[in-house]
């Protein structure tokens, strides 16, 4: 299996700030392990939060991770659609286009 290539900016951050990036990674892992949510649900939540913050790269990343954890295309899209009344249609439409970069 081919090794997954991390985004260039992430690689640069890891190279320039290895202790910080290790701590960020460990914090994320600790948060995931802190409660009863399964990995798929965690990724859908993080994808939705990234969408709300309009973070295209993070939506891409968490969409990929959600798929890896067993989320369907329909679950990913629904997780974004339900945000419409919270963050508005234009923001959801943008986030949906970012998710479709990965799911389509």
Walkthrough of the structure:
This protein has 104 residues and is mainly alpha-helical. The chain has one domain: AhpD-like (Up-down Bundle), CATH 1.20.1290.10. Helices cover 77% and strands 0% of the residues. The protein is built from seven helices and no strands. The protein has helices at 8-16, 18-33, 39-52, 56-68, 73-81, 84-87, 89-103. Helix 1 (8-16) packs across helix 2 (18-33), helix 3 packs across helix 5 and helix 4 (56-68) crosses helix 7 (89-103). It is globular, with a radius of gyration of 14 Å. The two termini are 22 Å apart. One of its GO terms (molecular function) is peroxiredoxin activity. This is AhpD family alkylhydroperoxidase. Residues 18-101 form the Carboxymuconolactone decarboxylase-like domain.
Shape: globular
Give the amount of beta strand, in percent.
under 5%
CATH superfamily: AhpD-like
Structural class: mainly alpha
Number of helices: 7
Q: Describe the main β-sheet briefly.
A: none
What integer value in Å does the Rg equal?
Answer: 14 Å
Q: Per CATH, what is the topology?
A: AhpD-like
* Estimated helix fraction: over 70%
Mean pLDDT across residues: 94
Give the distance, in angstroms, between the N- and C-terminal Cα atoms. 22 Å
Instruction: Quickly count the domains.
Output: 1
């Amino acid at each position: 299996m081919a090794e997954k290539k991390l985004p260039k900016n992430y690689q640069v951050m890891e190279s320039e700030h290895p202790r910080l990036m290790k701590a960020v990674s460990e914090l994320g892992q600790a948060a995931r392990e802190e409660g009863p949510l399964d990995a798929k649900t965690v990724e859908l939540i993080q994808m939705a939060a990234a969408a709300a913050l309009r973070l295209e790269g993070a939506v891409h990343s968490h969409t990929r991770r959600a798929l890896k954890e067993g989320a369907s295309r329909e679950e990913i899209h629904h997780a974004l659609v339900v945000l419409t009344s919270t963050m508005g249609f234009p923001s959801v439409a943008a986030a949906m286009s970012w998710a479709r970069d990965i799911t389509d």
